[in-house]
Amino acid sequence: MDASKLQELTDWLIDGGRSAASPVRFMAECCERMVAAGLPLWRIGVFVRTLHPEIYGRNFIWKPGSEVEVGTVDYHILESPDFHTSPLKIVFQQGLEVRARTDDLRTGRFPIVDELRAEGVTDYIALPLPFVGGTVNASSWTTKQPGGFTEEQLAALRRLVTPLARVIEIISLTRTAASLLDTYVGNRAGERIMGGQIRRGHTETMNAAIWLSDLRGFTALSDRLPAETVVDILNHYFDCQVAAIKKHGGEVLKYMGDGLLAVFPIDEYVGDDKQVCSNVLEAAHESRASVADMQYPVGDSVERFRFGVALHVGRILYGNIGGGNRLDFTCIGPAVNLAARLEKIASQTRRTIVASEGFAGICSGGWSDLGEFPVAGFSKAARVYGLADEKSAA
Q1: Do the strands 353-356 and 55-62 form a parallel or antiparallel pair, or are they unpaired?
Q2: Please, which residues have CB within 8 angstroms of residue 370's CB and are 6 or more apart in sequence?
């Protein structure tokens, strides 16, 4: 092995691997530098747990001459036979390294060793990647070198793992912060917060289509069912909307009990208001169908559900609002207020989908004029439209 190149690699890791512009590039360059220093590597894997409601972890796989493969696993991996018979389980749960030479019959308890032997691999070692916060992640290292890794090569790998874990932890923390912001405030808001828009009063105006919905009969539902059941119903109910909203370019900004506020930004320079509003209406149609199909068994009966959504378009103020150091990234303005009032009118008229005159005028066709309604807080009555394919419920 080349001691000077190993030291250069260590220094590069301590400096944060700055020449690598992305996690994928970092993985590739790190492995390439290891091979250049004399480590006979074949297939390398880095496995990092995430703080995400759906994704348990991410994996990065490198092989010489190939692009780095990036994958994710969900929480079902914890119940899978593959995980329970993997050396990585020992690394994750006990923080221990696991060595498995493919010519050692004692490694038969790990099915992956048979797969690696078929590839021509002679040696495998899984090493923990301990983070400062106490979390232990994992890495796996294989070689096709006859006789497997030498003790000198294993010692070099063990020395490199510590600075490698530091860089991976930094990358992981940055990604975790972005993921949590995406989960709790939405993608666009999260990007702005990560970009430094964190002070109270940091706001901007934008044109957007506004979606405001709620679940019909929620108060009565909450009164007669256990709280845990109500939460589960809400989660299923929001699933009926969120997938459609995201699919059609919207972003959920806030859940308010059974209420949901989402925005669909309109690029005023492109002039895509008609397309955006058409996407919003399509999302509303899909959500209506999903909620109508939703069933929830409670005892001997099955609960069915209805919801209402108001659609409006206008200019909103979007940014940080709050008191002291407790802020919320949200949107306000007369357009949002009117959407909230329209949603109440949808309830009064027992309609599922209603729209303002402005929204219906942009996304024309398929509407019925429901008339003018007085709107609390507004000096003028608002003309409201409902879908022509829908009659007011009895």
Answers
A1: unpaired
A2: 349, 351, 354, 384, 385, 386
Q: In the structure encoding, which two tokens stand for residue 70, read together?
A: 């990036």
pLDDT at 394 over 50: no
CA 360 from centre of chain = 32
Give the number of residues written for the chain. 394
Amino acid identity, residue 317? Answer: L
Strands 307-323 and 353-356: parallel
The pLDDT tens digits of the residues spanning 259-316 come to 999 999 998 787 789 999 999 999 999 999 999 999 999 988 999 999 999 999 999 9
Which pLDDT tens digit goes with each residue over 275-286? 999 999 999 999
Residue 255, beta-bridge partner list: 260
At 198, which amino acid appears? I
Partnered with residue 321 across adjacent β-strands are: 328
- According to the model, what pLDDT value does residue 393 have? 52
Residue 15's contacts (CB-CB under 8 Å, 6 or more residues apart) are none
42: DSSP letter: -
Using a 10 angstrom Cβ sphere, with 0-12 exposed, 13-18 middle and 19 or more buried, the burial of residue 176 is middle
The predicted-structure confidence for 137-189, as pLDDT tens digits, reads as follows 999 999 999 999 999 999 999 999 999 999 999 999 988 888 888 888 887 78
Q: Rounded to an integer, what distance in angstroms lies between the CA atom of residue 139 and that of residue 122?
A: 17
Count Cα atoms within 13 angstroms, Cβ side, for 78: 9
- Report how far residue 220's alpha carbon sits from residue 268's, in angstroms, rounded to the nearest whole number: 42
Quick one: pLDDT at residue 353?
Answer: 96
Which amino acid does the sequence have at 389? D
Per DSSP bridges, beta strands 301-304 and 367-373 are unpaired
> Looking at the DSSP assignment, which residues form a beta bridge with residue 44?
62, 141
Check: CB of residue 317 under 8 Å from CB of residue 203. Answer: yes
